[in-house]
Amino acid sequence: MHVPVMLAECLEYLRPAPGKIILDATCGLGGHTLAIAAAGATVIACDRDAESLERAKENTREFAERIRFHQAAFAQIGEVLAAERIKQLDGLLADLGVSRYQLTAAERGFSLMMDGPLDMRMDRGAGPAAADIVNFESEKTIADLLYRLGEERRARKIARAIVRARPFQTTGQLAKLIEQAAPRTHKIHPATQAFMALRRAVNQEPEQLDALLAAIPRVVKSGGRAVVVTFMSLEDRPVKHSFQAMAKSGRAHILTRHVVRPAEQEIRANPASRGAKLRALEVIGEPHGNSSSERL
Ligand SMILES: C[S@@+](CC[C@H](N)C(=O)[O-])C[C@H]1O[C@@H](n2cnc3c(N)ncnc32)[C@H](O)[C@@H]1O
Asked: What is this structure's pTM?
């Protein structure tokens, strides 16, 4: 079973208890959902990946009566609450990125260590896949997204090589081309940042994160809490800035004055947790113009 990252810290800030309703926006394999339900809360468990949700259902069967699953992206949280007839939440959790299942399923195309189709869609039923970007977008578009979404400094060089060598069918072909065009400069595989950038583009991750952060003061009730775990500074930065803006406008009280990182012990037991950063806030006040008829 997948080991949920910073679980103790997530629970400490979310304070799940009987009668509380907590939305897990990134249910994945259900690690955090399971622990929140075990503490007695009701969980609205969302993920845009239908296959992950199927696995999560299996993993959390013990508490099935307290968990409601929805295949939904961050931008659809309002619709999920409307469908559940819930006005506001006691807590919201987001543990960003991809799950171990997604990374280790070669056919999903997320991993540069395993050969698979160039897919990378978290929701396999929606939108263009990574192959559509690398095989059809212009060199400039590819260079821009590698730089912007992956902080890849060799973006132009890699984009030029991609456009010359395409079409690509598999992650292996693309990883090899990048390795030849822009050889290794540090320990990590030379295609790591390009793969991350492609994944973020395919899944519109920056836009989704913005939608999630914007929804927090609307969907979490006054006194309720939001916890966000990120794995890269490109994701932590917008979380930090959005939390600061909410605090400044009087809509939130930041609970983590400094970003919280996993304890040494957790990193030793689960090296994948190494880069995790957690931020938490408590919502205060009501949304502007709140009334019983306010839409979610
Ligand atoms: C790091 S995993 C979560 C693991 C989970 N907390 C657990 O303990 O099993 C992140 C999950 O978030 C999902 N995800 C990422 N971005 C999303 C978005 N914009 N909307 C919905 N789900 C998203 C991914 O499909 C993935 O399953």
From this structure: 0.94
